[in-house]
Write a structure and sequence with these properties.
- This protein has 496 residues and is an alpha+beta fold.
- It folds into two domains: 313 residues, BirA Bifunctional Protein, domain 2; 116 residues, 3-Layer(aba) Sandwich (Rossmann fold).
- Helices cover 40% and strands 20% of the residues.
- The protein contains 17 helices and 18 strands.
- The strands form four sheets. It has an eight-stranded mixed beta sheet. Strands 15-14-16-17-18 form a five-stranded mixed beta sheet. A three-stranded antiparallel beta sheet has the order 2-4-3, with no helix packed on it.
- A hairpin with a 5-residue loop joins β11 and β12.
- α5 packs antiparallel against α6 and α15 runs antiparallel to α16.
- The longest helix has 20 residues.
- It is elongated, with a radius of gyration of 29 Å.
- About 1% of the residues have low confidence.
Length: 496
């Protein structure tokens, strides 16, 4: 006997059903509408890129396995599944740069892949939706991204008090790095460790970040993350910087000026944040777009303002514990990414929505945009006499020609099993025709079965008049040429 292969899903991945797919489609449509309202146009890049084109991920010893899924092609070239949508855009823009309008404003969506340890809410494949402006050095482009992020979340039905778009500037962080002695080119690796430690502030809290800035941290599973190895006085300065947010934007900017005093680059970053704050206020979004020094973003290619869209509400999980979803999007300025390919400065900024995480958050608060049930399935045309298959084909064709989703039953079961099948498909309606209906005295008819009312009928009614009314409406005959209108009426009752 041949050994059977065990069906198993790789860790960090998930199958998605009709309800999730329908919710995702509605959410991405709302995001697309917002991006297009701002004048961005659609573009698509492939899942695969040459590994060196991703910039951050270069071959490590015999295999480039630091964070990406990679393999060699038949030309012995390393290819990688894209880690995000920004690096592929930079490559695409660099190839077509001379032919593109500048600034170049585009959006794109699709799955991205992370070869990282999966966990609750952390997947190896998830959906992102990006918008980017390439070719503008104006801080107004960064402010626009923040305002658009706020507009996007509000269009998705999230109230202003339930989210915040937090803004910081990598130049401010560079100033802090200079002041703690990590400003030299050879300190790049340690700077990245510090940035990633700060980026975990919301999840780990000050004590967890303090450990990552020092010797390192052991997580709940026992895995150890190596720290930046900073001395206590440097750790204190970094933690002081992350706590610089004040009651108002003016207070925060004043605290940041004190934190980077003596660093020209840091002071330049504070000036950029002040300009963003003024533009955000002019756009009427200062209540939900805020300066926050704790935002750093984990990727190393950011060069200026960085921003993160965070959900502020909490929900109760199945275990009774509160859940806060936190960040559902982010982005920033990456002036060096396109320049890697062209050898000249090309300013760029962008914002990305984490659609998969956003779907989970909206489901948790029972957003009507998401819904909790699968969408209605197609009308099922039952096959009660296989010798009349051509006739049934004509019925399903008539429904489809009228724009009604319809399916001809192609299994081998009888009528009752076919109706159960239609229930499993979440169909609102089924069409039946046996010999009695075909040979009716006044001409052929079909029976219309309202499956939703039929389910109510099956539960039983204590009131006889209600029962009779349900029975009459749950299944009724109509002439073949009246089938389409009768089906439309039933679907109209139940959102089919």
């Amino acid at each position: 006997m041949t050994d059977l292969t065990k069906p198993r899903l790789p860790r960090g991945l998930a199958d998605r059903g009709p309800a999730d797919l329908a919710a995702t489609a509605r959410i991405t449509a709302a995001i697309r509408d917002t991006y297009e309202l701002y004048g961005f146009e659609a573009v698509e890049t492939p899942f695969l890129e040459y590994t060196d084109a991703l910039g951050k991920f270069l071959p490590d010893l015999d295999r480039p396995n630091a964070g990406v899924f990679s393999f060699k092609d038949d030309d012995d070239q390393w290819l990688s599944l894209r880690y995000d949508l920004t690096a592929p855009l930079a490559r695409s823009v660099a190839e077509r740069y001379d032919a593109l309008p500048k600034p170049y404003r585009s959006y794109r969506s699709g799955p991205v892949f992370r070869n990282e340890k999966p966990g609750p809410g952390r997947f190896r494949q998830f959906l992102q939706f990006d918008a980017d402006t390439v070719g503008s050095a104006s801080i107004a482009a960064d402010a626009e991204m923040c305002v658009m992020a706020a507009d996007t979340l509000e269009r998705l039905g999230i109230a202003r008090h339930d989210f915040a778009v937090k803004v910081n500037d990598r130049k401010v962080l560079d100033g802090v790095m200079e002041l703690i002695g990590l400003g030299a080119p050879e300190d790049a690796a340690r700077r990245l460790v510090v940035l990633r430690a700060i980026d975990k502030l919301d999840r780990l809290g000050p004590s967890g970040v303090e450990a990552l800035l020092g010797a390192g941290r052991r997580d709940e599973s026992g895995d150890v993350t190596k720290g930046a190895g900073l001395p206590p006085e440097s750790i204190a300065r970094v933690l002081g910087f992350t706590a610089a947010r004040g009651a108002t934007a003016a207070d925060t900017l004043a605290n940041l000026r004190d934190a980077v005093a003596g660093s020209a680059r840091g002071e330049e970053g504070v000036a950029e944040l002040a300009e963003i704050a003024a533009l955000v206020e002019a756009a009427g979004r200062s209540d939900c777009v805020v300066i926050d020094p704790s935002v750093v973003r984990g990727l190393e290619y950011y060069t200026g303002p960085v921003f993160e869209a965070e959900l502020l509400f909490t929900v109760t999980g199945e275990d009774g514990q509160p859940i806060r979803f936190g960040s559902v999007g982010g982005g920033g300025r990456y002036d060096g990414l396109v320049a890697r390919f062209r050898g000249e400065p090309v300013p760029a900024t962008g914002f990305s929505v984490g659609v998969s995480r956003l779907v989970a958050a909206l489901k948790a608060v029972r957003s009507p945009l998401v819904g909790t049930s699968a969408p209605r399935g197609p009308v099922v045309v039952a096959v009660l006499d296989k010798g009349e298959m051509a006739r049934y084909q004509g019925l399903v064709t008539a429904l489809r020609a009228a724009g009604i989703r319809a399916e001809l039953y192609l299994g081998a079961s009888g009528m009752n099993a076919q109706l159960k099948y239609a229930d499993k498909r979440n169909s609102a309606c089924a069409v039946l025709q046996g010999s009695n209906e075909r040979d009716a005295a006044g001409g052929p008819v079909v029976m219309i079965r309202d499956l939703v009312l039929g389910a109510e009928l099956a539960k039983g009614s204590k009131d006889r008049s209600d029962y009779l009314d349900l029975r009459q409406r749950a299944q009724f005959p109509v002439a073949e040429d009246a089938m389409v209108e009768a089906v439309r009426e039933v679907l109209g009752r139940h959102g089919g």
